[in-house]
Amino acid sequence: MRSTQASQKFIFVYVTLLLLLTLLFFPTLLHAQTTVPFVKRYETQGINGELTMIGNSILGENATQPYNGTQLNNNIDMVFIDVDNDASTFNSSSATFTTNTCNRVVYAGLYWGAMLAPATPAPNEVKFKIPGRAYQNLTADAQLDAIYYKDVTSIVQAISNPSGEYFVANVSTDEGYGLSAGWTLVLVYEDPALPRKFISTFDGFSAVRNSPYNSVSFSYSGFTTPPSGPVEGKVGVVAMEGDLGLYGDHMQFKADGNATFTNLYDYDLNNPTQYLNHPDNFFNSKITDSGLLVTTRNPASTNTLGWDQKILDLTALNPGNSLIGNGETGATVRVTNNVGGDHIYTFLNTFSINIIEPTLQVLTSVEDTSGNPITLNSPVQLGATVWYNINFQNIGTDNALNTEIKNTLPINVTLDQSSIQVPAGVTYTYNATTRELIFSIPDNLVVRESDPNNAAYDIRYQVTASDQCFDYSDACTNVLVNSIESYYDGETSGQNVSGQPGLNGINGCGLGNVGSMDLYVDTSSCQFDTELEFCNNTITISGDDGYNVYEWVDQNGNNIGNTKEIDIDGPGVYTVTQTKTGCTVTTRVVTVNGLDVTFTPADNNCKDSADGSVAIQVNESSANFTYELLQGTTTVETYGPTSSDSHTFAGL
Predict the structure, then answer these.
(1) Residue 156 DSSP SS3
(2) How do residues 574-609 score in pLDDT, each as one tens digit?
(3) Top-tier CATH class for 528-594
(4) Gap between the Cα atoms of 125 and 114, Å rounded
(5) pTM above the 0.90 mark?
(6) CATH topology agreement for domains 360-521 and 528-594
(7) Residue 651: other Cβ atoms inside 10 A
(8) Is the domain covering 42-354 a CATH 2.60.120.260 domain?
(9) Residues of the chain predicted below pLDDT 50
């Protein structure tokens, strides 16, 4: 808690600085208009799900209590909010994300920032805490002028249940009058119960103020709304410095098929006669979502003093599809600010809309020859024969055209083309060199889900794994990677889908698991051993290809090398252990036998013979031999393989 004396001194210095900044800093920033151009941050062409945002201010009238008054941020000496009871943080606030067990987060992007931030602590660093975990330090991926961005998808996906309270702490900001600071977490999640949507986000930084720079626009394309029925969608925005009592700022929307922009607004669903976000004061220091003030925050201020975060449901504003119609393929969102309005520092805009598009669901599975399922990453024996099954169905809202399913078969399997079973009308080609099996699907088998003729179909065929151990000696060659890709177009939407990966499973919620249907050949019975003969010189011995780590030891357990190839200068038993992440660890034993060889003349380099011939006598008969005569590195003559223990090269 600051002392009264310290507070008075700080206010005096701060007001002096604020006057200076008003004269020097703000004109520079405001005349710059868009200091960071807006670019697309995230987009999904089609997903059964939704986009939401959670977030909070980090400055308030009180460190722990919500502010529910009507003052402007210029009139309040703001202090750090700090609600986490953690001595390692000097400011903190939280917001709660609520979802169900059948939702899956596919994207999470964190934004934070402040109107004025000191150099220390570093403004591009914050602490972030997800439900059930401790704080972790984050460093921004990108700077958007006064705002910072971090992709936290992998962090959020690391917890099995993303529902719960999220904290952001140690946001670098000054305290005092006329400021705003906070954070926003954008979450895109799958939900099989929701309609198919186009979802996109743009970020940058723009100072939207009175003329001449009084607007910034965001244009969205790459989607097609349904050909009939109501068109539903949402827009979102996050900005700083919008004040509750200053009018003249707007959020506007225009579909490409319309001539004029429409001011957006919504009513408070808990008090339908009152605006939640006024058409002439859209940026009003509130955090709202679809007609409701978001209260699942700590503190849950109704006035966040310059931090605006909003998602607006367009449905109520679209009677008769007047705002955005059927078959629409583009829209523009605009932030404007007229005379009398305050400065709006916009940095994030989001858009989601129900769409029409085909969605080909392609699921692979495997059975043994008795019809028993073989699960993902299970072992099969050397020489095993299995059935591959491809199940496909259009679960989308548009008919598919020009559909192909490409199956790239694993190495070390042989396709039995006589076993291929396909639905009527399906044709295929197979390229043994590339191992690509391509199925062409007639249009009548991939009509939209609502069509009464829509159904799921199966393609089946047998493959047999190699029974030769040495086919699996190189890294990961015993992993049978069976990958699927789909290619198709939308009849009405014109959507082109290329290289869509297949699924290796569907969970109990109906969410697909993207990935190849992989098995592995059990090579535990294989002996990857070789035997070489050593004769009067060094010899190079080698491990197998593709491993990251090689560890060689001799027959006494001494470490003798860590590369794929090593040179040895005597007979012995040499063992290499070979490892690569995700692959089976293999061991190869190389036995080098010493040969007792007599040369006549006695020149162990086998050259410069005085009598024009070289006689070689191998003093053992337990192996086959090959005799080679070299001149430099050029082979002059070869004899063998032969069981003869002697040979003479003549005419030298």
Answers:
(1) helix
(2) 999 999 998 889 999 999 887 666 666 655 454 444
(3) mainly beta
(4) 12
(5) no
(6) yes
(7) 6
(8) yes
(9) 1-32, 604, 606-610
